[in-house]
Specification:
With about 375 residues, the protein is α+β, with helices and mostly antiparallel strands. The chain folds into 2 domains: about 220 residues, Orthogonal Bundle (Endonuclease III, domain 1), CATH 1.10.340.30; about 140 residues, Nucleoside Triphosphate Pyrophosphohydrolase (Alpha-Beta Complex), CATH 3.90.79. Strands 1, 2, 3, 4, 5, 6, 7, 8 and 9 form a 9-stranded mixed beta sheet that branches. The structure holds iron/sulfur cluster (SF4).
Length: about 375
């Protein structure tokens, strides 16, 4: 049965699959970029980012010649910024080692930063029609259901079984159509919730469908509650400018520009006091009641205004971050706060820079005008 699994998918893709994605039928660079952007992110979200990115960096030499900051500015809002950093690092390796030409062998591709076995295989299959199996999130779900493979797909033994099935089902020809068919089936019919088994081309021998186990496969990993952390972001404004700091290259929001970040509001206020921002008599301050003590300890200049804004939550893969923004409008720009790696930027210019999504939302809501 597995032998005609691929043929049914290929026929289905030709009739019902997606044919108008801008990276379809394109060269390895475009396929690579799309594959990286599509990790953890849906096609509809990726499309505008992809178009803007390709317009700015039309080929590998252009990407390699850009600074990391320019690249991250085009990644800003897409999340998982290590993808953008790795993409840029890989482009520079390709420029140096392969004269700007995308390497032609799987072994060379899989060594590049940010490219794993499945992504390298997808590039080889889609760009050069090499007969290679992929195993991304969509394919894992389809195979776990169609073959009836239980166990969390992240477990080594389960993953090995899935790779085995992925290899065994490869067609002899039309590999690019088949790879696209797997992606399309997982994204449009065999979805995580409410799969459309009634119109699925492989329902006849789908173990999960035939056995009434669709909702239990693939086995969900037992999710522990995400740890929660708190932080305060200080929106330090002078006229239409905001103070931003470049974050270290690794860790959350690595390499992006952010307002100064603190453990909590009190730490932000203590820092403001240390930097000598408007420490005179305590008027013109609004601080939450529970921070009244901080307010009296760290009053700001009567010409400046400090406001504690609505706390909100941003979810990362491994934890939740509760962010309390503090907005402090300064009447004078203190030179002391500007360190190496920080700069004052006009808010509208900052919105074009490499900033994380929650910071973009804060700037749009609280810092414009
Ligand atoms: S029949 Fe349903 S569960 Fe099985 S592969 Fe098709 S969509 Fe997925």
């Amino acid at each position: 049965m597995t032998s005609n699994f691929s043929q049914r998918l290929i026929r289905w893709q030709r009739k019902h699959g997606r044919h108008d994605l801008p990276w379809q039928g394109a060269d390895a660079y475009h396929v690579w970029l799309s594959e990286i952007m599509l990790q953890q992110t849906q096609v509809a979200t990726v499309l505008p980012y992809y178009q803007r990115f390709i317009a700015a960096f039309p080929d590998i030499p252009a990407l390699a010649a850009a600074t990391e900051e320019q690249v991250l500015a085009y990644w800003s809002g897409l999340g998982y910024y290590a993808r953008g950093r790795n993409l840029h690092a890989a482009a520079r390796i390709i420029a140096d080692k392969y004269h700007g030409e995308f390497p032609r062998s799987f072994e060379q591709i899989v060594e590049l930063p940010g490219i794993g076995r499945s992504t390298a295989a997808a590039i080889c299959a889609l760009a050069w029609h090499e007969r290679r199996a992929i195993l991304d999130g969509n394919v894992k779900r389809v195979l776990a259901r169609h073959c009836g493979i239980a166990g969390a797909p992240g477990e080594k033994a389960v993953e090995a079984l899935l790779w085995e099935q992925a290899e065994a089902r490869l067609p002899l020809r039309d590999i690019a159509v088949y790879i696209q068919a797997q992606m399309d089936l997982g994204a449009t019919l065999c979805t995580r919730n409410s799969p459309k088994c009634g119109i699925c081309p492989v329902q006849d021998d789908c173990v999960a469908f035939q056995g009434g186990r669709v909702s239990e496969l693939p086995t969900r990993r037992l999710r522990k509650a995400k740890p929660e952390r708190r932080t305060a972001l200080l929106l330090l404004l002078h006229g239409s400018d905001i103070l931003l700091e470049k974050r270290p290259g690794s860790g959350i929001w690595g390499g992006l520009w952010c307002p100064p970040q603190f453990e909590d509001e009190a730490a932000a206020l203590a820092w403001s006091a240390k930097e000598g921002i408007g420490i005179t008599s305590g008027s013109g301050v609004y601080i939450r009641p529970e921070h009244a003590l901080s307010a009296s300890r760290y009053p700001v200049n009567s010409e400046s205004r400090c406001e504690s804004l609505q706390t909100f939550t941003h979810s990362f893969t491994h934890f939740k971050l509760h962010i309390t923004p503090l907005r402090l409008r300064l009447s004078h720009r203190p030179q002391s706060v500007q360190q190496a790696g920080s700069l004052w930027l006009d808010v509208e210019t900052a919105l074009q820079a490499a900033i994380p999504k929650p910071v973009r939302a804060l700037l749009e809501e609280y810092c414009r005008g």
